[in-house]
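Researcher: I'm preparing a figure for a lab meeting and need a structural model of a single chain. I don't have an experimental structure, so a prediction will have to do for now. The sequence is pasted below. Please return the structure as tokens so I can convert it later.
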Amino acid sequence: MRLKDKVAIVTGSGRGIGEAIVLRFAAEGAKIVVNDVNEKDAGAVVEKIKAKGGQATAVIGSVALRETVQSMVDTAGREYGTLDIIVNNAGITRDAILHKMTDDQWNQVIDTNLKGVFLGIQCAARVMREKGYGKIINISSTSALGNTGQINYSAAKAGVIGMTKTAAKELGIKGVNVNAIAPGMIWTDMMKNMPPETIKQMDAALPFLVPLNRKGQPEDIANLALFLASDESSFITGQVIFCDGGMKM
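Model: Understood. Here is the structure written out token by token.
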């Protein structure tokens, strides 16, 4: 098992990419702290892990709040004795064209997708620095390069890349690896709930947008996160890996 007895926090892991990551980590022997704002979703993921013989607990709340993030770190220490891995995955969208975007839409996305990642890095790093070991994985996006209707989301995801590289420079000497994953078109609930006509148009354009000619699955991101969380990636830090089927090559 590649993560045997490691302790991992994954934010926003009640469904989608986050759920795929915790299920993959648990299958490889990690003890998991599941986080989500939706208690029912988080509880269901914990039960899935336990049903397969794994260990998991949940912390409910928004990563935009320091008390929630600190509670995750404290829970990992109290329940499992330490913290080895954090995946800062939680994120939201509040899309609007530039001239129509409201302050509330901007603030919600920046608070969750940017501040939330900062808090995750900071709170986890305080533990990891002391033990001289840690894996921090931040979920950015291909939208970090710019995307129509997502100036808030793009700004936050670009900021995640800057934070990843800065944290990697600061924490490397303490034995902590910090990397980012930039997913592309991943088939999650967010995509599935788009209007059918939009999905139809997207599918028609797929061969021109994605060289591998398919939508990504949450498991594609989970497999990459597993590699970055494992000791196989011990000489990789400060990197942003695009997992997008070649869309942004």
